[in-house]
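Protocol step 4 of 5: obtain the predicted structure for the target chain.
Materials: sequence only (see below). No template structures provided, no constraints applied. The aim of this step is simply to have a reference model before the mutagenesis design in step 5. Sequence pasted as it appears in the construct record:
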Amino acid sequence: MSCGDPHDTDCREVLAEVYFYLDLESTDERRDLIRHHLDECSPCLREYGIEQEVKALVARCCGGETAPSELKSRLRSKLADLVFEQETHEFLAE
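Step 4 output (structure tokens):
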């Protein structure tokens, strides 16, 4: 699926990674791919702008609070497990 003209990268794929892109947690290759897509897709760029505003609002409301690095590591590990479980579940459903 694409928002209007066809793109090399699916819009759903780009929008699913917007927070990783905003948090600088994606690889350089993925950042380049997302940046290129946003440059040519105005609907996705608008969505990116909304997500950017939400992130800024959360940052303002939470002040300078940051999560301990141990918590971030544990969350990343748990999220990776969930993604693996979801992919495995989807594979088994086919």
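Step 4 remarks: Helices lie at 11-16, 18-22, 28-40, 42-62, 69-93. The mean pLDDT is 77.
Proceed to step 5.
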